[in-house]
């Protein structure tokens, strides 16, 4: 990687800003001041310092976001606030995107990264990555519904879903509602809502709890995010 590209990727600004940094002799490679942005680096061996402080190169970034209602799972949108808008300027690395989509009114776990290969592995239907949701449903789910989901329910558009695990957490007979937990192994469009509709009920609140072994941090407030821990990253990247 070229020195100027390295500096830009590690947060030292635009090409113009990096050029000025080099010109002022603030950059050293292996202990020697270097003003040539075209210098090719061997990242595994070369030590780069700015103002005598070592710069660590990080190629990929991983953030756990607790998505709130009202924002969309996109990188940019002309009329709506996006999940990327929730990332601070300090953490807003080049190429960040949400892994998969949560509906505008759906909350919970969303992985934000610039690791395209990991995203592909997590979203590929062939990988059958587990995703767990909790939902409030109008109508009371039953043991029969559990059996239907376990066999693979057919949803609108005559799409057959893979077998899914439905757990009934709480039933409110007076309100004719219930709380459920649902584990699915794929990510069809509006899948959870369509699965529940297929058995005559309706999802009114939906929250994602986990994806691929990554569990939503219950200390993370709605709209907040944090970097993944080393163990969380390792658990996810093992799927590559």
Automatic annotation (TrEMBL):
- The UniProt transmembrane annotation reads none
Identify the EC number(s).
5.4.99.-
Q: Which SMART domains match?
A: S4
Q: Which keywords label this protein?
A: Isomerase, RNA-binding
What domain of life does the UniProt record list for this protein's source? Answer: Bacteria
- Read off the SUPFAM superfamilies from this record: Alpha-L RNA-binding motif, Pseudouridine synthase
Alphabetically, the GO molecular function entries are:
RNA binding; rRNA pseudouridine synthase activity
Q: Which GO terms describe its biological process?
A: enzyme-directed rRNA pseudouridine synthesis
Write down the Pfam families for this protein, in alphabetical order. PseudoU_synth_2 (PF00849), S4 (PF01479)
**Cellular compartments per GO CC:** cytosol
RNA-binding is among the record's keywords? yes
Isomerase as a keyword of this entry, yes or no, is: yes
Q: Where is the RNA-binding S4 domain?
A: 1-61
Indicate the family of this protein: Belongs to the pseudouridine synthase RsuA family.
| Protein name (database record) | Pseudouridine synthase
Q: Which organism is it from?
A: Vagococcus fluvialis
């Amino acid at each position: 990687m070229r020195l100027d590209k390295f500096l830009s990727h590690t947060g030292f600004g635009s090409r113009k800003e990096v050029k000025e940094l080099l010109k002022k002799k603030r950059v050293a490679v292996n202990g020697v001041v270097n003003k040539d942005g075209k210098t090719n680096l061997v990242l595994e061996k070369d030590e780069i310092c700015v103002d005598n402080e070592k710069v660590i190169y990080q190629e990929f970034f991983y953030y756990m976001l607790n998505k709130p209602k009202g924002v969309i799972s996109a990188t940019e949108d002309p009329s709506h606030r996006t999940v990327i808008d929730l990332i601070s300027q300090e953490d807003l690395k080049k190429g960040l995107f949400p892994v998969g989509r949560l509906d505008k009114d759906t909350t919970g776990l969303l992985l934000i990264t610039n690791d395209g290969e990991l995203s592909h592995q997590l979203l590929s239907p062939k990988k059958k990555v587990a995703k767990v949701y909790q939902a409030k449903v109008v109508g009371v789910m039953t043991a029969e519904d559990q059996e239907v989901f376990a066999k693979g329910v057919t949803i609108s558009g005559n799409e057959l879903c893979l077998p899914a695990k439905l757990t009934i957490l709480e039933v409110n007979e007076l309100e004719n509602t219930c709380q459920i937990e649902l584990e699915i192994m794929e990510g069809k469009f509006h899948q959870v809502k369509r699965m529940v509709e297929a058995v005559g009920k309706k999802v009114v609140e939906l929250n994602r709890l986990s994806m691929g072994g990554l569990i939503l941090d219950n200390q993370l407030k709605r709209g907040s995010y944090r970097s993944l821990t080393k163990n969380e990253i390792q658990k996810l990247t093992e799927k590559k």
